Amino acid sequence: MPCLNSLTAAVLASLVLTTACVQAESPPVLAGEFSSPPAVQASPQKPGSTAAPQPAWQVVESYGHDRRIFTQGLELHGNRLYESSGLYNQSFIQHVPWPAPDRAIGPLGQTHPSLVVTGGVQANRFAEGLTILNDELFLLTWRSGEVFLFHPETLQPQGKLRVSGEGWGLTNDGKSLIMSNGSAELRWLNPRNLKVRKRLEVTDNNGQPQANLNELEFINGEIFANIWQQDRIVRIDPDTGKILQTLDLTTLWPRAERPGRADVLNGIAWEPLSQSLLITGKRWPTMYRVKLRDAPGSLLAATKPNVTNNTAAPQALTKPVN
Ligand SMILES: [Ca+2]
Q1: What is the pTM of this model?
Q2: How far apart, in whole angstroms, are the C-alpha atoms of residue 229 and residue 168?
């Protein structure tokens, strides 16, 4: 596709992976395109406590991220980092090696062009979230009611399935696809036919529905979702829908520092090796590796002592619909 040919070249030429420690040094390449993330996030101190509060999250590394990627989905699978980019006539998916073999050198596309694989999306489709399950890559679309399947290595189209309503974020628990649609509802879908297995309303501490759930990541039994236009990530109990914790990431890359074309935080991936999150946003120049104070799964375990944290063997759904 014409748009992909040019876009692929652009991506190859500009994707940068660096391991600059944000506290110790500046990124060596395209320094002007990097923001300066905070080393830590301030968190409220408990009354009566004299010890310094431990931040809920902390940036430990930053990486270059192509500003032309309108990030919709982000997921690590094996040794590849997958990302989907939205907008009509511009949508695509790609994967890059992870960890990058030369992550400290610079533009990956210039040094390892063969390692960046991109796949096309029809021009009149708007790509949304993606996830990989059973050796298939599932890509949501926004309003076309379609989920496209791709080969996870070659990114060649493998078919498509129908889904009702809008598509926003996508993840999986090892058995079912889990999708958001911009409302407070999450749906568990059979990956073979997208039939709904379970619906769940996500609610805040006041019991009110939490709308605008967007990009998703299933980690150690919890569902992480970023809230559209708020630069916040909520951690959700997949059985009750209750929000276990809200991570305020408004200081990760403050809006006041963003150029006009940069959009909202969107993109959560879990890196098991380092036990940290990868977080970026739409047209963000930076991807952040973030450590959490409360390990994924720990908040769920605190509410359900019998729950074991194991991403390889997620809990069975309690109320399957089909
Ligand atoms: Ca994700």
Answers
A1: 0.79
A2: 13
Residue 95 CA, ligand 1 centroid: distance in Å: 13
Question: pLDDT at position 306, please?
Answer: 63
Give the tens place of pLDDT for each residue, 196-211: 999 999 999 999 999 9
Q: Are strands 80-85 and 71-77 parallel, antiparallel or unpaired?
A: antiparallel
Provide φ and ψ at 292, rounded to 5°. Answer: -105, 145
| Ligand 1 center–CA 321 separation, angstroms | 24
Position 56, amino acid: A
Q: What is the pLDDT of residue 97?
A: 86
Going along the chain, which residue ranges are E strands?
Answer: 57-64, 71-77, 80-85, 92-97, 117-120, 127-133, 136-141, 146-150, 157-162, 170-172, 177-180, 185-189, 196-201, 213-219, 222-227, 232-236, 243-248, 265-271, 276-281, 286-292
More confident residue, 299 or 316: 299
CA of 9 to the centre of ligand 1 (A): 25
Cβ proximity of 95 and 82 under 8 Å: yes
Residues 210 and 225: their CA atoms lie apart, in Å, by 11
Task: Please tell me the predicted confidence (pLDDT) of residue 35.
Answer: 35
Distance 288 CA to ligand 1 centre (A): 14
Q: How far is the CA of 132 from the centre of ligand 1 (A)?
A: 10
Q: What separation in Å is there between the alpha carbon of 79 and the centre of ligand 1?
A: 15
Inform me whether the pLDDT recorded for 308 exceeds 80.
no
In the chain, the amino acid numbered 42 is A
Span 26-44, pLDDT tens digits? 332 222 233 333 344 444 4
Say how many Å lie between the CA of residue 41 and the centre of ligand 1: 22
User: What separation in Å is there between the alpha carbon of 174 and the centre of ligand 1?
Assistant: 14
Domains in the chain, ordered, with CATH? 2-32+56-102+112-303 (2.40.128.630)
Q: Ligand 1 centre from 267 Cα, in Å?
A: 6
